[in-house]
Specification:
Number of strands: 0
CATH class: Mainly Alpha
CATH topology: Four Helix Bundle (Hemerythrin (Met), subunit A)
Shape: elongated
Structural class: mainly alpha
Radius of gyration: 20 Å
CATH architecture: Up-down Bundle
Number of domains: 1
Helix content: over 70%
Largest sheet: none
Distance between the termini: 46 Å
CATH superfamily: Formiminotetrahydrofolate cyclodeaminase monomer, up-and-down helical bundle
Strand content: under 5%
Number of helices: 6
Order of helices and strands: HHHHHH
Length: 209
């Protein structure tokens, strides 16, 4: 059964077990989806309100983007589990002969590459989601602005969690050129969007002082 079809309780239970999946990447994707949905809720509460008539078209567009991101996060939650399983198996492959060593190295490299690309995709989604939170916080209804702030911080946590899944896999890669390319993209996204999420949180919190 896909992880997205599990109840919250069942997902948490399997996450806490010694099963290899889901892990940090899948959890990051789920948290990203939750954070995005919080902003989307702000949009839902803003639609149809006369006070926000001048931003209705903007809110509709933001909600469409948020809805698409939510689906992408859920797909990536499952994809993260799928790409990790080959890596988990590769670690257990024999390496007694030169041929076995070469085969294991090749399979490991392929698996590590996939295990970098999925959390990088999660990071890109988190970046887009944080941009949406900023817009929801500025244009959405004031009665739910705290939810946009919560969403930004959830997406920041998901971003940071996904980055660790990139960095642990690039550390083990033999192709250092590819590894450094992944590290640079992850580092750049992390730097820009953790700062943006913090800014959204600060701006939202300031409205209650």
């Amino acid at each position: 059964m896909p992880f997205s079809e599990l109840s919250c309780e069942a997902f948490i239970e399997v996450l806490a077990s010694k099963e290899p999946v889901p892990g940090g990447g899948g959890a990051a994707a789920l948290v990203g989806a939750i954070g995005t949905a919080l902003g989307n809720m702000v949009g839902s509460l803003t639609l149809g309100k006369k006070k926000y008539a001048d931003v209705q078209d903007d809110i509709v567009a933001l909600k469409e983007k948020a809805g698409a991101l939510q689906k992408e996060f859920i797909a990536l939650m499952q994809k993260d589990a799928e790409v990790f399983e080959p890596l988990s198996r590769a670690y257990g492959m024999p390496r007694d002969t030169e041929e076995e060593k070469a085969q294991k190295a090749q399979i490991m490299e392929e698996a590590l590459t996939a295990c970098c690309e999925v959390p990088l995709a999660i990071m890109r989604c988190c970046a887009s989601a944080i941009e949406l939170q900023e817009e929801f916080a500025r244009k959405g209804t004031a009665i739910a602005v705290s939810d946009a702030g919560c969403g930004a911080i959830c997406c920041k946590a998901a971003l940071q969690a996904a980055s660790l899944n990139v960095f642990i896999n690039t550390k083990a890669m033999a192709n250092r050129e590819r590894a450094e390319r992944y590290n640079k993209e992850a580092g750049d996204i992390l730097c820009e969007y953790t700062a943006m999420a913090d800014r959204v949180f600060t701006e939202v919190a300031a409205r209650f002082n």
